[in-house]
Amino acid sequence: MRKIFTYCLIFPIAVICSQSFAQDAIYQIDERKINCKIKDITAKSVKYSNPANPGPTYSLDKSMLLMAFNESGNYIVFSGTDAASTSNPASFLNSNAKRDFDILITIDNEVIASQIDRVGDSDISYKKYDKAAASASSTPVTVSKANVLIILHRDGRHELLISPTDAATVLRTLKPKVNELLSNGSEPASQTSTLATTAVQVEANNATTAGVANFDIEEYRNKALQKIDEFGEYVNNVSNKTTPFEEANKAIELACELFLNKGVKAYVEVSNVFTKKKDKRLVRNYLEKLKLTKYDKVEVILANIEFVSDLKKGTDGNYYGVVTFEQKFTGYVDGKPIYSDLVKKHVTVVLKGYTTYDEGQAKEMWDVFLADIEVVETRS
Amino acid sequence: MRLLSLVVLVLGLQPCIAQDLLHYRNDNFALEVKQVDEFIERFNNDNNALIRKYIQKIDPKFKFERKQLLKTLFNSTDTTWNRADVDRFIRHVSDSSRPVYLSFFDDSWFAELHCTVLYKGKEEHMKLIMKVQREKNNASKWVFASAIANFLKLPKSADPVVSLNPMSHAVGFIALDRALNDKKNVRNYLPRGFESNTLAVFIQETRNNLLTIQQVNSITYHFLQAEGWIFTLENYNRQGRNSGWLISKLMPANGAMKFQYKNDILNLR
Fold first, then answer.
1. Alpha-carbon dihedral of residues A108, A112, A117, A120, nearest 10 degrees?
2. Most buried residue, A87, A181, B12, B235, by most Cβ within 10 Å?
């Protein structure tokens, strides 16, 4: 009862009901459905044609897809690396065996082989199907439609009573159980795992760089480190006693220029490995405060090792990465070191594309900006 | 000798040799798993992994084995590891015929944020569960998946017997306002088993400026990506080579157990 209730919370009020005819279908991550004929599934993409106009072949990146059904009702879920949750694409494409039973997937995680008599507005009437005996029980069972998530009809149609996103999660989780029933269409687990994981690797690699014109990872990396160095120099200037006040202000302005949108929303958070309290400021405020901390001389030694993460595309079209490195900071007064610490910095680096026009020709360019920074003091 | 020391260094078993501060830190820093992304690249034994570059720069002949690398990704200070499970997991993941790789874009991993918040002027602690959501054009973003906080749940009723009496309908439910004002016994007016959606309450209270995040104290990542296993990742921010983002817990889990884990531990209902 509790489970039923929880599911009612997950899939509330307006239950999305999607019923399809027996033909191939692809669900995209924005939950749009494409009725089609799937021609091939590669490590990277799904190729398909439009049954109404079978000439051209279209292709969609797998990272943009939730799942696909074929005309026999078998399915493949694209998200996830869990071997139990995915299928061998070849097996999926070749499985066209018809079943003589329907499959009901319920909110109690049950995968029921059945012969459905009636799908009503509020309930479903069926007879349990014994696969070994290849016969249905004579006793009809009625289940509330609210307790059923997905119906895989024997004629290959599928009916989603929840959103496609939720359905993909359920179908992936319950794939081993479904495979037991579709034993003709299942494949050895080892094959599944290898193919699934290979595909994910390719997906991940592509997702980091796709769509960036004139983009070079090494150039990005160098530019990112250069901007971080520049920021470090401005920090030195700001916190140095010998820097005239106006020059320090100018350094703050120039430092903010290094940040995305001039740093108006960029945070610098300072945490300490030994305490739980974190101090977070907008970058300009952080620099203004630094201006008040005066040393005759500051020395910043950058460790050689740095970790530059892969870039990931944000919904604003910019690419985001984080650079981690260590710095040793020493502040001197009267020639003597009065403060020293070793800090680990995580700096968000944003790759932003823009268009310039050269003699009327549009040229795609990109630049690197800094964003949120986390500074972890590791040792005094 | 250098090669031997590197091997031991990779395995994270040898106490550090005193060197100048920065050099000593360089070794630690190179071996520390500095970001979750670095954990993923080491877990996957990525050819471009920083650790490979660092060690092969010193010793070009050094041969990496995924099993060795995986061993270094466990928190070695925990003495309660089930060795058999760890060995089985490493064998499973590094099985060359069906290797397991992690993907940032997979939807079977979650970040559990341990947060300090200010709720109605009082400092409270709560957990937020985040997940990566893929978007159009290869974009992605982190989104709130659930919230876990006792103070956002409905409290137990103070008086179990007060309720809307069974003949309320006959008087046009005249006492509805009395029921809704009875804040100590809200549960009595709701169906048995009712649980409010904590994430919805969290968002509502944030929008009403009643709840503000003070800081994220720590993060635990839950990986449900590997078939048959669940493991968690925590940041061990300490000196030494076995530091940074390391596996803190490992448990065998079939599909049903993962489903249950999402429900019970991550509150993903």
1. 20
2. A87
| ipTM reported for the complex surpasses 0.85 | no
Mutate which of A309, A329, A349, A373 to test chain B, going by most B C-beta atoms within 10 A?
A309
Kindly compute the dihedral angle of the four CA atoms of residues A19, A21, A22, A23, in this order, to the nearest 10 degrees. -100
Residue from the list A173, A177, A200 with its beta carbon closest to the beta carbon of B101:
A200
Q: Are the C-beta atoms of residues A342 and A308 closer than 8 Å to each other?
A: no
One DSSP character per residue, A274-311 reads T-S-EEEEEHHHHHHHHHHS-BSEEEEEEEEEEEEPPP
Q: Summarize pLDDT for A177-197 with one digit per residue, the tens.
A: 888 787 753 333 333 333 333
CA atoms of A289 and A283, how far apart (whole Å): 10
Identify whether the C-beta of residue B148 lies closer than 8 Å to the C-beta of residue B127.
yes
Tell me whether B141 touches chain A (CB under 8 Å).
Answer: yes
One-character DSSP codes across A203-263: HHHHHHHTT-TT--HHHHHHHHHHHHHHHHHHHHHHTBTTS-HHHHHHHHHHHHHTBGGGG
Q: Cβ of B181 under 8 Å from any chain A Cβ?
A: no
| Strand pairing class (B211-223; B109-119) | antiparallel
Give the count of Cβ contacts less than 8 A between chain A and B.
160
Contact A193 B100 (CB under 8 A): yes
Mutate to test the interface with A, among B31, B58, B105, B243 (most CBs of A within 10 A): B105
Q: Does B98 touch chain A (CB under 8 A)?
A: yes
- In whole angstroms, give the CA distance from residue A95 to residue A83: 19
pLDDT in tens, B226-238: 999 999 999 998 8
Q: Which residues contact B88 (CB under 8 A, 6 or more apart)?
A: B252
The residues pairing with A344 across neighbouring beta strands, listed in sequence order, are A326, A376
Cα A91 from chain centroid? Answer: 27
Nearest CA to CA, how far is B101 from chain A (Å)?
A: 6
Q: Is A37 exposed, middle or buried (0-12, 13-18, 19+ CB in 10 A)?
A: middle
Contact at CB, B217 and A276, closer than 8 angstroms: yes
Do the chains contact at B25 and A61, CB–CB below 8 Å?
no
Nearest by CB: B38 against A301, A307, A379: A307
Confidence of residue A214 (pLDDT cuts 50, 70, 90): low
Q: Is A102 left (phi over 0), alpha (psi -120 to 50) or beta?
A: beta
Provide the mean pLDDT of chain A: 78
How long, in residues, is chain B? 269
Residue B248's pLDDT is what?
Answer: 98
